[in-house]
Write a structure and sequence with these properties.
This protein is of the alpha/beta class and 287 residues long. It has a domain of 169 residues: NAD(P)-binding Rossmann-like Domain (Rossmann fold, 3-Layer(aba) Sandwich). The chain is built from twelve helices and nine strands. It has a seven-stranded parallel sheet, sandwiched between helices. It has a two-stranded parallel ribbon with strand order 7-9. Helix 4 links the parallel strand 4 and strand 5. The longest helix is centred in the first third of the chain and has 15 residues. The protein is globular and about 55 Å long. The mean pLDDT is 95.
Length: 287
């Protein structure tokens, strides 16, 4: 019987979770993966994973896809604005299919956070708690990789723009968060727990610029600009206006600490220090 199922298995985080489960000695034959299209999972199928086909909008197909699964990892969807109904469908289907446990990748400090992404996560957490299933909430901080999106421009101009002033960030790499998800999915004892998952090390944008400068051997400075100006700059860089506005506002509200946590729950789960932003930047610079 297939014991585990990972949603979003073809995404960046999902693939890393599968790798982390493999590192724990769990064979692919014990793991199902949920995808929307069979062709998207050809590689996973070849590796021996049980490929289940379903869309988050179809509870009936989701229920069939979850047949025989004991422990499910719901990786939050990518369609901002549609995630709450989609996630609720997953939870309803999991309950109908007899799934025993669900882990969910939520957002750091979700229930208090002023970040625009938080409400969908809060609603999903509530749906999971109301389902009666055993659960663990994995409240993930910002990915460290998110901070590298503007790295080419930072290196070219010698300036890093943002609207966070001296906000503290404690992001974590996808790989570290994936390892934590694999720990929780593959072992009992985490039921009913909510983990605030962040990197061990915090930094400001000024620190971030200085780290790039030290590694790249050139002068880099952080330039703080108003939220509206930052949003406009992101649009000019090619981001859709809603996303640009969301990211600019995230910078502003992060001054209240919504992307900072010093409990070290993540390193506790994975049993080692988290990957530092210096290591992440260094790897990116080395290509």
């Amino acid at each position: 019987m297939t014991k585990y199922l990972v949603t979003g298995a073809t995404g960046q985080l999902g693939q890393l979770v599968l790798g982390a489960l493999s590192d724990k000695g769990i064979p692919a034959s014990d793991i199902a993966v949920l995808v929307r299209r069979q062709e998207a999972a050809a590689d996973l199928d070849a590796k021996g994973y049980s490929v289940r086909i379903a869309d988050y909008s179809d509870v009936e197909k989701l229920t069939a896809a979850f047949a025989g699964v004991e422990r499910l990892l719901l990786i939050s969807g990518s369609e901002v604005g549609q995630r709450l109904p989609q996630h609720t469908n997953v939870v309803d289907a999991a309950k109908a299919a007899g799934v025993k446990f669900i882990a969910y990748t939520s957002l750091l400090k979700a229930t208090e956070s002023k970040i625009g992404l938080a409400p969908e996560h809060v609603g999903t957490e509530a749906a999971i708690k109301a389902s009666g299933l055993d659960y663990t909430l994995l409240r993930n901080s910002w990915y460290s990789e998110n901070f590298l999106m503007a790295l080419p421009q930072i290196l070219e101009t010698g300036q890093h723009y943002g609207s966070a002033q001296d906000a503290q960030f404690s992001p974590a790499t996808r790989a570290d968060l994936a390892e934590a998800a694999a720990v929780v999915l593959s072992a009992e004892g985490h039921e009913g727990k909510t983990y605030e998952l962040a990197g061990d090390e915090a930094f400001t944008y000024t620190d971030f610029a200085a780290t790039i400068a030290g590694l790249a051997g050139k002068e880099i400075t952080y330039v703080d600009i108003p939220e509206a100006a930052f949003s406009e700059a992101l649009v000019a860089a090619g981001l859709p206006e809603p996303l640009a506005g969301l990211l600019a506002n995230t910078d502003v509200v992060s001054q209240e600490g919504w992307l900072f946590d010093d409990t070290k729950a993540l390193s506790g789960l994975i049993g080692r220090p988290t990957t530092t932003i210096k290591e992440v930047i260094s790897s990116a610079l080395q290509g």
